[in-house]
Specification:
It comes from Streptomyces actuosus. There is one protein chain. This protein is α/β, with parallel strands linked by helices. The chain contains six helices and eleven strands. The model has no long low-confidence stretch (mean pLDDT 97).
């Protein structure tokens, strides 16, 4: 049986930040499950940059079914977790079931990939104290408030934690995460 990786997300997650790791990890031979607050069809979004705008814009993205609800996740079944960005982390960080899931990954020193606004979730469980991370650049102060050292880079590796700024950085983010994942939980 292949090793399993969990993606935790919800409505308004960035489409590319969910689906790129989902497909890339499956391509590597991992079994990938998507968990959300409820088992339902999720509505993702597309964030893009428009000339003249001070920040990104948001458009409807793909829909995708969640395989299971956070309440049904047994973190012990998974070798790693991926935390996409978008707006979903803003409200997901308040979910006590998700915080328990994420804490178990950090407590077991399992690989964690986070991107864009995803680090808001790891900050909510005090998982960033003393760590080096990157995130969407507008979150620099949030990362510092969470006790992390912020680096504006495509990917930052700190032990088993691999972070990235946003979907344009996918290639390096996934390369670095796969190095960590293969070392900790190779596909058999």
């Amino acid at each position: 049986m292949p090793a399993k990786v969990l993606i935790v997300t919800g409505d308004a997650a960035e489409s590319l930040e969910v689906l790129y790791p989902y497909q890339r990890l499956r391509e590597e031979g991992y079994e990938v499950h998507i968990a959300a607050p409820a088992r339902k069809k999720l509505q993702f979004v597309v964030h893009d940059f428009e000339p003249g705008f001070d920040t990104y814009t948001e458009k409807p993205g793909y829909t995708w079914p969640a395989d299971l609800a956070f309440a049904d996740v047994d973190p012990g079944e998974y070798v790693a977790v991926v935390i996409p960005g978008g707006r979903a982390p803003e409200y997901l960080r308040n979910d006590p079931e998700l915080r328990k899931i994420l804490k178990s990954f950090f407590d077991a020193d399992k690989p964690v990939a986070q991107i864009c606004h995803g680090p808001l979730l790891t900050a909510a469980i005090d998982g960033l104290t003393g760590r080096r991370v990157t995130a969407y650049p507008a979150l620099e102060l949030d990362m510092q408030s969470a006790g992390a050292t912020f680096q504006d880079a495509e990917a930052v590796v700190d032990g088993t934690l691999v972070s990235s700024r946003a979907w344009p950085d996918h290639p390096l983010w996934m390369r670095e995460f796969l190095k960590v994942l293969r070392a900790k939980a190779p596909v058999t």
